[in-house]
Fold this protein.
Amino acid sequence: MKAYLSLGSNIGDRRALLREAVSSLRVVQLSPVYETEPVGGPPGQQKYLNIVVEIETDLTPRELLGACHRLEAAADRVRGERWGPRTLDVDILWHESGPVDEPDLILPHPRMQERRFVMAPLADIAPGMVQPDWDDHAEGRVDQVDPL
Ligand code: X6L
Ligand code: MG
Ligand code: MG
């Protein structure tokens, strides 16, 4: 089945961390890389690098969430302040198996439309997944940089 993931990093060697994470996934499409203004969280954070990937997976949404958490752990992510800086964040945006509504997993991701760091790379690889006017409703500055 097909799924879309959003990946972000704003600590350490951001490109290497994103590359390492995608290397263990069956990536069908990799978006351009964006350097993005931090949205939410404490002031003074470094900029993020963000990408979106389309993957092929046999995992259920619940199993995929576990796999995302293992990728974050493999990047030595330390859980600190809410929305604080992180070596790697991997979020599920959409899963072909359909909607999920559980306390810790809601799909499609309910707030993705509000975030330019998600919508810009998603629109690049899956224009059919986004509203044509998404850019009018999204916040946070993003700049396309060199590909991964
Ligand atoms: C109002 C108030 C509207 C807060 C939105 C949006 C809060 C997104 C947190 C929000 C609000 C978040 C990344 C990031 C985070 C990332 C960039 C979050 C949670 N992750 N900023 N901020 N890239 N650029 O991957 O997404 S923390
Ligand atoms: Mg996130
Ligand atoms: Mg997350």
